[in-house]
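User: Hello! I'm new to structural biology and keep hearing that structure can be predicted from sequence alone. Could you demonstrate with Periplasmic nitrate reductase, electron transfer subunit? Please show me the input and the output so I can see what each looks like.

Assistant: Of course. The first part below is the input, the amino acid sequence of Periplasmic nitrate reductase, electron transfer subunit. The second part is the output, the predicted structure written as tokens.
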Amino acid sequence: MRAWIVLAVISMIALTASAQPTVPAEPFHDTLRGLTPLDEEAKPPLIAPVDNRDVIRARAYAQQPPTIPHKIDGYQLDRNANRCLACHARSRAAESGAVPVAVSHYTDRTGETLEHISPRRYFCTQCHVTQADAKPLVANTFTDLPDVRLPPARQTVKK
Ligand code: HEC
Ligand code: HEC
């Protein structure tokens, strides 16, 4: 009888040991790497050609840095020279016909407006990107500003 109990206890222990939670073998998915495992090199998608049509795109939200509606190939942008400012500086806009940079670009982090571009806005391509006919990498249900400010019943995009 006692041997039987011992056997039962041992087999129960063995059973619980084998019922360890296992991580389901879900394939690793990444928006840029796809299903390529981390230790292998992914085949990068082709880079979409830059739109160069001079058509300003609507902004998705009020504080979005506008996309660049022209090519920027070969424009020098480093500590020695800023080709963008040659056209976009407020002092150059009348001559170049470019949209002058917003006043926010002359404001430093203490809120003071400077007479030159603020260092934190010097490297334009940190925030502004050229336009391309590229598909979004991830889906989203973002609601634009006019909709956010409406009472929920009048929003066109339902959350
Ligand atoms: C030769 C002059 C010139 C240079 C250099 C230039 N731009 Fe432009 N940019 C323009 C003009 C003109 C427009 C107005 C739209 C158009 O004609 O393409 C414009 C439009 C833009 C806009 C859109 C603004 C809006 O309100 O939507 C952005 C952003 C921009 N440029 C960023 C840049 C950046 C960043 C660089 C440097 C990498 C740069 N530009 C260099 C002339 C220039
Ligand atoms: C830290 C991010 C950042 C950097 C760096 C930056 N911008 Fe912007 N830019 C923005 C944002 C955000 C807006 C829209 C909100 C605003 O006006 O401040 C904007 C707006 C603009 C506009 C539209 C202005 C208007 O009145 O419609 C132009 C043109 C522009 N930027 C050009 C540039 C150029 C040229 C540079 C480099 C000298 C630059 N930006 C650097 C974030 C940035």
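User: So the tokens describe the shape?

Assistant: Right, they're a compact way of writing down the 3D structure. Reading them back into a model, for example: Residues 105 and 121 are 6 Å apart (CA to CA).
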